[in-house]
Structure formats: structure tokens, C-alpha cells
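I have been asked to look over a protein record a colleague put together. This is what I was given:
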Amino acid sequence: MTGPALLNYPDTLSKIVQTVTNLITRKHNCQSIMDDEDLDEDDLESTELEWVVVDNAMDVISGLAAALGPSFAEVWKVFEKQVLRHASSGESLARSAACGVLAEIVTGMESAVTPFTPAIMQVLLRRLGDEDAQTKSNAAYAIGRLVEMSDDNNTVLKAYPAIMQKLENMLSVKEARCMDNAAGCVSRLILKHKAHVPVEEVLPAL
């Protein structure tokens, strides 16, 4: 039972969404083995086992986006707040994973991502300047996909100067495929709105 056929089984899809929601908000029964009285919120976020569970749950979100395509837009309304929160986490693992998920959901939704563009762009722009190389790399890939898929040209074009500035800084970072994803993002910026990219200045840097 995979792909858009899931929509023919609303109860099944609903159960999947509810279970994943419980996991990414750390409210599932499997996460209750930890004694909340002994650990504060910061401790919970930094617990490796706890994060493995959340990370796997976010992989399911990516899978749902790939399976449902543009129809995933309705499901994204349920997950949006929590995924964006993880993208702004104090933990680099959470930030990088969330940016990776954002890239996948944008790719899956295609143009249906348009209404969500402002919120996603805002978070990804911050992560594009992240101190963590993997987070920056994932953010660059996600922004490229967002520019490619979204029809919200107003939001996208307003972000072009900031995106270009931060990508320039990434082109010298050899970790975590930063150079590759920065170059890929620039390529998508050019393909979508060539008139808004100083190609003569950009190409030598690439």
C-alpha cells in the first residue's frame, strides 16, 4: 500500500500521520521510557537515542512527500511547525536533518509548495549561514529546490541577493559537499530567473 493509493485509505494515512506526529514531538509511547522528571528539555534534545527515533520519523515524512506528490501539501500542514522547529534547533544534527527533509518535501510537493514558500525560505536562509557544514549544505540544496518548484516569485526574488551572498561564502567550504550543493543551487537560481543573477560574475567563481 504505497504511493498516492494511500489516499484511498484515509484511516491508514491518518494513523501514519498521527504516529509520526507523536514521534517528532516526543510524545510516542516508545519515548516514555525516559524519565521526564530526571531530564529537562535541553537534556532530552541532546539524548542520542531520542534523536535517532525522531530522525527516523522525519524520514517517514520525506517518504510520504515522495509518495503523495502535490497531495502531500495537506499533510504538510500537520508537520510544518515541528519540522521548522527542528530546523531552528540548538542541535546541529536536528538542523541538518530538518533541512534535508525540507529539500525532500519541496521536491515531492512540486508547485504545491508555493503557499508555504515564505516560511520555508525564512528558515532556510538562516541555515544557509549555519556554523555546521552539513546543515549549510542541506540548506543550499533545499533552497535550490524551493526556487525551482515554487511559483511564489515575489518571495523567491526578494531572497536572491541574500542567497547569492551566502552561497559565495560556501564555495570555499570543502566539507559536506558544500561546494557541490552551492553550485547546484546557483544553477537553479539561474535556470529559474536568469535575469536576476549576474552570470558574468558568478560563473568564474564556480
In short: DSSP finds ten helices and no strands in the chain.
